[in-house]
Each structure stands twice: as structure tokens, then as C-alpha cells.
Design goal:
11 strands; alpha+beta; elongated; 9% strand; five-stranded antiparallel beta sheet
Length: 546
């Protein structure tokens, strides 16, 4: 991406003077009991700008606002997957699932479950059932289509097969029914809890989102996932050895008779770890055939496990020089450079914000990447990013596809931070701009704010044809990425189309003449009405962008 920080001017700050529209939530909840509480609760269920996934998928405030509007208009009773409510619930469920995976082996390995574990498991099962229910009311992000799906029918279909059956059966409180319903002949029902292992991918997904929110490295996340799978395997293998031991030796074995269930559990865990790590064979006394089979399985699993551990260590070492770490190294170098130059804190903060927005915490060289692709692929990428924006311009409509492609290839990316002046009223312009991501404010030459422009909008198109001063100033409100089309590149692109060139020029001249006439008329009206709060002439110029 190209940058033009050397051209950028700044203002003291954007203090919006436009009348603020009521928040969307107030249009849908505008009366009744506990109105403020209901608004806060509804906002809690909607997309949150603080969610890192919102920033990755919906990169600007305009897109987030559109998502809020879509949610309220079409899917009012659904929970957004990027909401604060969903984040909070997933953090709770991380604790719940961890507790379940720790408690369940102990419960499966004993004939009579202690009361404390029984009631704890019952509460955890209730949370699991609530999690199952919430899946039907929570949208999801479809990776293939890169869209947030909120339609109830689609959400229902995505969850009902095959996850719902396993999740529901594993969450039923069988032990409460067995113990308090005197249904000991159904003791084997508790083995349905093994289906809870199908929740492990859900737990890993929740942990992934939590790590993203906590700004952890990707390779650290994979390490956490591997450690989770490893500990789960060890702990459940421990429970299996206890079950096998009590089954082969009868209910009156030493382990089942021992009041302290913790000691035999730790002994079994010790034997399992030794076997899996290929340190020694298990010495638990069971049936000889079963013992041999168990040791054979441990050798096979342990061999694979040791290879996986080695591969994981090598992967962590390799990822140490990944794009994320290159980004951190770049930040460190920039920080050292600015300290050496003794730059003030305000400039340091702006530099860090610029780098973070430009690279999104990953280092990549767009030019090098595009150069490795074929010409056709590069054109496809550019058309995907910019074609719709270019075709919005009035005097670009109806142009042949070949010319649109030539114009798109001339666009250059630039990044502006909040309060950067992108164009200045009264200064002769030589380029137009397309807003890819971000929001800008438009001011008249008299510094009167008239409107905001957001994703997909454009401004300064007359400067491509006519060497005239700008009629308005444009200031960035948020971090903005814009595409700049210079007059020189534009004239070069349309050079093979002389007829179109004259038509575009005539259209631009007519547009400029109308704008000047409206501005002249507006000046006369201002003399009659001093309290007028907007400049209709310039607003007319930008009407298609509001």
C-alpha cells in the first residue's frame, strides 16, 4: 500500500456540527416500561464494535451500523455472534466445559457419585442445556460466503444435524435420575456422558475467540488447543483404567472400597502418563489379557503422541518467525527509532495507529504478492475491490469494461488517520478519491460541516478534468483507507478513447457550471438568512453520497 503522510495536514479535531440522528435502537424501543433497561439489553445482544471479530469482518463503523440495522429490521429476536452477550456467555462456557471434562471421568469411574460432584454436575448440565438452546437463537459467521447468517431457518439447519443430538443427549442429568429415582438398574445410562467429548471442538472454538479477544499469537492458540487435547486424553484414559479395574475386579475392589477416591485416581493417572510417554508399562493389576491389550494401546497411542509433540514443538519454532512476529519486530524497531529521534507521544501514537491499521497486525508485501500472480488474477482482484466504487461515479457510468479495468489498475491505496485533511477547499485539485473503508466529514470553504461520507463513497471527481480549486474540504473522522486516482493516470487511461474523453469532459464542465450557479445562488440566500445551518450548493454536489 502506498502512503502519502507527507501530504497530510491535520485539524485540531472533528467536532461534529451536524444534527445527530437518533440511534437505531431508539427507533425500535421508543416507549413502554423500563425503556432504558430494554435498550441496553437489546444493544447487549447486537453487534459490538469492541469485538475483534467485528473489526475483522466489519471493518468500518458504516458496515457495523448496516449490520445493526439488518439485525433490528429482520432478525430482532436473534443474538448476534459478534455481540457482547455472546462473548460473555462463551467465557462462562469455557469454565463450564473445563469443569465438566474434569468432573465427568471421576463420575464415570465410581459406582456411587459423591453428593458434591453430583450437584456440581447437575448445575453444569443445566448450563450445557442452556448452551444448546442458545445455539438456536444465535447467528453464525459463514466462512465460505464471508457473511453473518442470522436467518432462523439457516441457523436451525446448521446446528440440528449432527451436533444437536450429541449435545442434547450428553447434557441430560442422568445421574440425578438414577440416584434419586432409585433407578440403579439404569446405571449404564451415565455412559451417555461420553458424548460430551463431542463438545471439545466447541470448547476449542470458544478458546480461539477468547485468545483473539486477548490478542494472543496464533501459534500460542494452537499450543493451547494441543495442550487441551493432550490433557483430555490423559484424564479420560485415567477414568478408563479405573472403569476397567473396577469392572474386572468387582465392585468390592480396593479402589471402589476406598473412601478417598482421589488417591486411586492419581495412581491411575500416573500409570497412564508413564505408558503414554513410553517410560514404563502400566502396573495396575487386572486381567492379564486386558492388561496386555491396554499396554499395547498405550504403546501405539504413545508413539503417535510423542511424534505429535515433537511436530508441535517444531511448528512453534517455525512460527516464531511468522508474519505476526514480523509485525511485532517492526513495531519494536519503529518504537526504537522514535525514541532515538525523541518524538513526542502524540506523534508516536499516530504512527502506531497507522501501522496497526495498515497491516492489521500482520506483515505482508502486497506488491510482492500481486507480482507472483498472473495478470488475469491481478485484474480479478483489483476489479473485485474497486469496480463497484468506480462505476458509482456519474460520468463513469456506461463506460466499456476495458476502460473500467484500465481505471481500476490506476488506483493507488492511501491511509489517513482521524483528523487528517485529505483535500483542502480552495486548493487546486489533481485527483479524486474513493473511500474503501472509513468515514470522512465534508466542509464548505467557510468551514461549515455539511455531511459525512462512508464506505463506497467518492469525492473530487471534477478535478480529473478541470484545473479548478476544490469547493469543499474533506477530513478523516476514523481510520480511512482510500483509493486515489490522479488526473495524470486518468488521462492516460482514457487516451485510447478520444470520443469518451470529450464526453466525460463535457459532463464534468456541465456539472461544475451547475455547482457554481448553485453556490452563487446560495450566497445570495445567505445574505437574507444568516441562520441557515447548511450549504445547499455544496450539499447538492455531494447529495449522492449522503
Amino acid at each position: 500500500m502506498a502512503s502519502t503522510l507527507h501530504k497530510v495536514r491535520r485539524v485540531e479535531g472533528h467536532d461534529c456540527t451536524l444534527p445527530q440522528d437518533d440511534e437505531l435502537i431508539t427507533l425500535y424501543i421508543n416507549g413502554g416500561l423500563f425503556v432504558n433497561l430494554r435498550r441496553k439489553f437489546r444493544q447487549y445482544l447486537m453487534v459490538s464494535a469492541a469485538n475483534p471479530e467485528s473489526k475483522a469482518v466489519l471493518r468500518s463503523t458504516a458496515q457495523i451500523r448496516l449490520e445493526e440495522s439488518r439485525h433490528l429490521r429482520k432478525y430482532y429476536h436473534m443474538i448476534h455472534p459478534f455481540s457482547e452477550a455472546r462473548i460473555t456467555w462463551e467465557m462462562i462456557m469455557i469454565v463450564v466445559y473445563f469443569s465438566l471434562f474434569l468432573v465427568m471421568p471421576l463420575e464415570l469411574a465410581t459406582t456411587l457419585t459423591p453428593a458434591l460432584i453430583l450437584y456440581l454436575k447437575f448445575v453444569l448440565d443445566l448450563f450445557s442445556l442452556a448452551d444448546v438452546a442458545l445455539f438456536f437463537f444465535t447467528g453464525y459467521y459463514d466462512i465460505k460466503s464471508h457473511k453473518v447468517v442470522m436467518k432462523p431457518n439457516s441457523v436451525f439447519k446448521s446446528y440440528i444435524i449432527p451436533r444437536f443430538i450429541f449435545d442434547f443427549l450428553s447434557s441430560l442429568p442422568y445421574n440425578m435420575y438414577i440416584q434419586y429415582g432409585n433407578a440403579y438398574h439404569l446405571i449404564h445410562l451415565k455412559y451417555f456422558y461420553l458424548l460430551k467429548l463431542t463438545r471439545l471442538p466447541t470448547l476449542i472454538e470458544y478458546i480461539r475467540k477468547f485468545c483473539i479477544r486477548m490478542d494472543l499469537y496464533s501459534y500460542k492458540l494452537s499450543t493451547v488447543n494441543f495442550a487441551l487435547w493432550f490433557l483430555t486424553l490423559i484424564w479420560w484414559a485415567t477414568a478408563l483404567t479405573l472403569v476397567v479395574y473396577t469392572t474386572t475386579n468387582g465392585e468390592k475392589s480396593d479402589i471402589s472400597e476406598n473412601v478417598d477416591n482421589f488417591s486411586p485416581t492419581m495412581e491411575s493417572c500416573y500409570q497412564v502418563v508413564k505408558s503414554f510417554m513410553l517410560v514404563a508399562m502400566s502396573s495396575i493389576q487386572t486381567d492379564k489379557a486386558i492388561s496386555m491389550l491396554f499396554n499395547i494401546l498405550c504403546i501405539l497411542i504413545g508413539s503417535v503422541l510423542n511424534m505429535v509433540i515433537l511436530a508441535q514443538v517444531m511448528q512453534i519454532y517455525r512460527r516464531h518467525s511468522s508474519s505476526r512476529n514480523k509485525y511485532d519486530n517492526l513495531i519494536q524497531e519503529i518504537g526504537e527509532y522514535m525514541n532515538y529521534k525523541e518524538l513526542p507521544t502524540s506523534i508516536k501514537n499516530r504512527v502506531f495507529r497507522y501501522v496497526e491499521f495498515k497491516f492489521q497486525k500482520n506483515i505482508f508485501k502486497e506488491g510482492d504478492i500481486l507480482n507472483t500472480l498472473s495478470k488475469i488474477l491481478k485484474q480479478d482482484i483489483l476489479l473485485h475491490n474497486c469496480k463497484k466504487m468506480v462505476e458509482k461515479v456519474d460520468f463513469f457510468k456506461g463506460l466499456p469494461g476495458s476502460l473500467i479495468l484500465r481505471l481500476v489498475t490506476k488506483l493507488r491505496s492511501e491511509i489517513y488517520l482521524p483528523n487528517d485533511v485529505i483535500v483542502q477547499a480552495g486548493i487546486t485539485g489533481n485527483a479524486m478519491y474513493f473511500i474503501y473503508v472509513g468515514s470522512v466529514a465534508v466542509y464548505t470553504i467557510h468551514e461549515q460541516e455539511i455531511c459525512h461520507l462512508e464506505d463506497g463513497s467518492y469525492f473530487g471527481e471534477i478535478s480529473l478534468i478541470i484545473n479548478e480549486p476544490r469547493v469543499a474540504s474533506v477530513v478523516a473522522i476514523t481510520n480511512c483507507e482510500v483509493f486515489r486516482l490522479s488526473r495524470r493516470d486518468f488521462l492516460e487511461a482514457i487516451e485510447p478513447y478520444p470520443n469518451l474523453s470529450s464526453r466525460i469532459r463535457d459532463s464534468a464542465l456541465a456539472r461544475l457550471k451547475r455547482t457554481q450557479m448553485m453556490m452563487s445562488q446560495d450566497q445570495k440566500e445567505k445574505e437574507k438568512d444568516k441562520d441557515k445551518d447548511k450549504d445547499p450548493a455544496v450539499k447538492k454536489e455531494f447529495k449522492f453520497l449522503e
